[in-house]
């Protein structure tokens, strides 16, 4: 299937669904039934042949012999980091909410229990879950009653946050009656609160909770000097914005406040908002760093992430400030935004984009060579990392003005789901999805297994992201009224 066709398909499904008839015609009913059967077939294949104990990975060879998440995976392993297990679970839960078919609720519950089995004693999740009984002994999984072994909760790449949000959504869908899911979600929330630093930040990952005496609350500032040579720090405990980890955790806490109707979760989110205010750098660079040490200085993380002001994460932080204002109505969250946007505009490259990193004080863009030497030139950059990022400053400014005018507008619990109406575009999208399915119920496509040495750069794969998107389309069509 041509890529442009699928892009058009996704655009179709983002359009409002409008009906052309007061009642469904016989042909429309037939299309609805075909979508329902295809949806069931696709989910049965993923549950019965792809799943490991209810858990999922990112990509598979079409014969399911090769498997991977961000790295290679075995047949006893699932991935938590999106688009892994929580992402599939959310798609299954959405299929249930649209169709009212309990089969999908049971499938989503099975996936939720896989996550429960992967929860660590530290309260959150690692990137992956191991289900082999012998290999599980290397991990401190709560359900196994083990306190020894790998016990590192990671907030990187929306890993723990996505797992927790799916468990909370499942808990609510099950009316808080599944004790294992309910207890796991609550334990994870409590652990995140304990892991929060006194200034409101979170680390990238943790295995134990911080000693408040070691983390004084102070405003971010510039260090007198910083090493251009990589010092190989243990950056796991740093206050970390990288990959939107704090933003994802704030959104998770606001969701918890809505689902469980408990103010302490919103208070936790607001404490993190206070950290964002503290972390804004002074002029002449009033934006944010990727990570800070305990002295609130921008700090090194990986060998290609220097102490600097970031043109990437700073844009996500501005969106988080807007979310904080909408949820709380507190104007203090709006105040940092105009100077940050003005600074980012001053920092635009000649091509209209932003450097990921800007040198402290001088504001010169920083890059790395393929040998990971720090440089001011973008002529020899590694390709695995975004050292140059898009600039959505016009969009941010419009959202700022719109949000400021709208005022306090907290997100409301989504108790009801709007059933889609029939449209020709939705029907066409569903037909494309049905026609692309093989006899097993799988969607096989050309792609790359990046963690494996395959004979060629492209091969026939099953991609979890594709499953999630197409299940969503079929569920919409199966639910038309």
Order of helices and strands: HHEEEEHHEEHHEEHHEEHHEEEEEHHEEH
Oligomer: single chain
Largest sheet report: 5 strands, antiparallel
User: Count of DSSP helices?
Assistant: 13
Structural class: alpha+beta
Radius of gyration: 23 Å
Estimated helix fraction: 40-55%
Mean pLDDT: 94
Beta fraction: 5-15%
Shape: globular
In whole angstroms, the N-to-C terminal distance is 29 Å
Would you count the extended β strands for me? 17
List segments where confidence is low: pLDDT < 50 over at least 5 consecutive residues. Answer: 16-21
Notes on the protein architecture:
The chain has helices at residues 3-14, 26-50, 85-99, 102-118, 159-173, 179-195, 245-260, 263-279, 313-328, 337-346, 393-406, 424-436, 464-478, and strands at 59-61, 67-68, 72-73, 77-79, 128-130, 153-154, 205-206, 239-240, 291-292, 309-310, 354-355, 357-358, 365-368, 374-375, 388-389, 445-447, 459-463. The protein has 481 residues and is of the alpha+beta class. The strands form 6 sheets. It has a 5-stranded antiparallel beta sheet with strand order 3-2-1-17-16. A 4-stranded antiparallel beta sheet has the order 10-12-13-14, with no helix packed on it. Strands 4-5 form a two-stranded antiparallel ribbon. Strand 12 and strand 13 form a beta hairpin.
